[in-house]
Amino acid sequence: MGVRAGCDDWYCRDCLKQLFIMSLKDDTLFPPRCHNQEIGFDGVCHLFDKAFASAFERRLLERNTSDRVYCPDGSCATFLGARSPSRKVVFCPGCGKMVCLTCKSSHLPYESCPSRPDEEAWLKDLLRQNKWQKCPQCNSLVELTVSSQADRCIGRVLKFRYS
């Protein structure tokens, strides 16, 4: 027995499960789509165990969050939520470090946010040199890879004008 996608294509259960599993491993496949139409998880969640369903729901939350904050520890990089003016510090569940939601770095709550004008200037220069841009919705870096002037942000699959 198969499952119908939003575009009226049919998938066997094994192929559909594989598509969802691969989408968690490859950002370009997330969320799972067929003919550019998102395949909703609600209609297929019964095919997966609770651990996978929980991981998929966390990834959906991450995808739909603007101005994301990740643990600054490169070996952790756990998604922590959105930058927030009301919450200043959060503990990373991945490594236990305190992370500032204002400056997105690791420092103690009573310390002021580190100033990084040199690093910010270096990053802006790097973006300009490589002709990269930031997605206006989620701040993910986007590289123009086709000859058209529109591209997609992997983070939110948002089309925007690349200038």
Structure description:
The chain folds into 3 domains: 2-63, no CATH class; 66-114; 117-161, no CATH class. It has helices spanning 13-25, 50-63, 117-130, and strands spanning 2-4, 10-12, 33-34, 37-38, 68-70, 79-82, 89-91, 98-100, 132-134, 141-143, 150-152, 159-161. The strands form 6 sheets. Strands 1-2 form a two-stranded antiparallel ribbon. It contains 3 helices and 12 strands. The radius of gyration is 19 Å and the shape is globular. The chain is α+β, with helices and mostly antiparallel strands and 163 residues long. Strand 3 and strand 4 (37-38) form a beta hairpin. The mean pLDDT is 79.
Reconstruct the topology from this structure.
Layout: E1 2-4, E2 10-12, H1 13-25, E3 33-34, E4 37-38, H2 50-63, E5 68-70, E6 79-82, E7 89-91, E8 98-100, H3 117-130, E9 132-134, E10 141-143, E11 150-152, E12 159-161
Antiparallel strand pairs: 1-2, 3-4, 5-6, 7-8, 9-10, 11-12
What's the main sheet like? 2 strands, antiparallel
Nearest-angstrom radius of gyration? 19 Å
What is the spatial order of strands in the main beta sheet?
A: 1-2
Q: What is the H/E string?
A: EEHEEHEEEEHEEEE
Shape: globular
Count structural domains.
3
N- and C-termini, Cα separation: 47 Å
Structural category is alpha+beta
Question: How is the quaternary structure best described?
Answer: single chain
Strand content: 15-25%
Uncertain runs:
none
Helix content: 25-40%
- Mean residue pLDDT: 79
- Helix count from the secondary structure assignment: 3
Number of E-state strands: 12
